[in-house]
Amino acid sequence: MTANDEIDTGRPHPARVYDYWLNGHSHYEADAAAAERVVQVWPGVVMGARLNREFMHRATRWLVREAGVRQFLDIGTGIPTEPNLHQVAQAIAPETRVVYADNDPIVLHQAQKLLTGSPEGRTAYLHADFTEPRSILEAPALRETLDLGRPVALSLIALLHFITDERGAYEIVRTLMDALPSGSFLVVSHATADFDPDLLTRVAEAYQSTVAEGQIRSSSEVNRFFEGLELVDPGVVVAHRWRPDGDVQPDITDAEFPVYGGVARKP
């Protein structure tokens, strides 16, 4: 069965809804309709998708420049949107190696766009499910691309709010981090209702009724993902306030972009 055969175009998928908000071209009518339902509730979601992407770029640049990371495992990759993580990292250190993982067939179909990196580095793509972490860690493509004896940055961008406690969100992150050596990092961005509970309740209802289940978490609940790790300053903060640079608009309020971001090191 080909990737196209597996794509259910009548059912919206988080990766394709996100692609719509980022003005991409890899979504279907059902995805656009679901995305627009969320926009009607939260007009700022399109800006939020862009700001979330910029957080990933800043965190990646910091990890490569300041922390010396040369290996990344990005789970919940989504549909390729340039610059992708490997392009950001390899622009600084061409020898960087990146493994992407996602469970949407359309990402698999477009994976070639994720595999064109610098000649000095390497990129690989796994069609895998975050809720089955052992299948990711034991995948030959991961073992062939990354050296798990050296530090790896685990990147979970806008993924964990789709994984409920009942599905083992905390345990899955722990399993993945336990497999990585000292000096590895965890990068997380996660939606929250801390600043406007009514808005996020309505967004969650609009999203979960058509796209996917999930769980919006508070600051303390997001911090739990980093237990046992050393948070990088400024800690877990609204993502556009994490080491802002010229890309960030200073007049954006926390309520307009209710997404936490954080980076932490495994001691």
TrEMBL record:
GO biological-process terms attached to the record: methylation
GO molecular function, one term: methyltransferase activity
SUPFAM superfamilies: S-adenosyl-L-methionine-dependent methyltransferases (SSF53335)
Highest rank taxon of the organism: Bacteria
Gene3D superfamilies: Vaccinia Virus protein VP39
Keyword Magnesium: no
UniProt keyword terms in alphabetical order: Methyltransferase, Transferase
InterPro entries: SAM-dependent_MTases_sf, SAM_dep_MeTrfase_SAV2177_type
Protein name per its UniProtKB record: SAM-dependent methyltransferase
Organism expressing this protein natively: Streptomyces marispadix
